[in-house]
Amino acid sequence: MFGHSGQAHGRRGLLALLLLALLEGGTAPAGANEQPLRVAVAANFLPVAERLSTRFTRQTGTPLRLVSGSTGKLYAQIVHGAPFDLFLAADEARPRRLVEEGRARGAPFLYATGTLVLWSPRPGLVDQTGGVLAEGGFSRLAMANPRLAPYGRAARETLQALGLWSRLRSRIVRGENIAQAFHFVVSGNAELGFVAASQLLSRGEEGSRWVVPERLYSPILQAGVVLTAHPAAGRFVHFIRCGEGREIVREGGYRVAADPAC
Predict the structure, then answer these.
(1) Which domains does the chain have, with CATH numbers?
(2) What's the rounded Cα separation, in Å, for the pair 158 and 214?
(3) What is the pTM of this model?
(4) pLDDT tens-digit profile of 156-171?
(5) What crossing angle do the helices spanning 233-241 and 244-251 adopt, rounded to 10°?
């Protein structure tokens, strides 16, 4: 009798475990079985995109696959058939161009506005007016490539507005994107450089900086566009523009305007 009772208890235990597994499977996020959402991300926005990805996947179960680079390089990859579902650029021009070329689904959307900063890890090198640029107390100035990266274009416009572009061109070291320009400064290959404000958040008050007045460069309006019919693309865009992700973008060092889509 005792042996039969033990077998019965064992069967009931097994059934209970199977039922629990079924219940847990029934409460899995809706996107748990979806293919990864492939996102092309402008280099300046990658740290924020990684936080957005983690939070979105935790809530929905849909994994994201992020590929970072300069906006110009990512645009060229998309044109040549790179399999991205969503493009988060650092300008408005490339997403709009993809729509005009019939390579996108729907209209571009604005997700952030960036801020340009002249920064050096050396305290006291950069003053509150950016006077060091005219004084010339440095040998190398880093910036992103103006042809490929909107932050590089903004840096060039700033130097042109100050009448310093021609004088300083020989001292400029160009990164392919803003992440590489930032690395040039951090590694000491340039004493100072034009970087994104978002890149400095983790460094607190380290070094010295000048927040470049917005009147000196065209606004860095960062737009995105959906490229495929991936079912999670729209959900992720809504998460960035209207949901919890909006505050993550703001905390990441970007300005976020009121969005009529929310």
Answers:
(1) 37-113+220-251 (3.40.190.10), 116-211 (3.40.190.10)
(2) 9
(3) 0.83
(4) 999 999 999 999 999 9
(5) 60
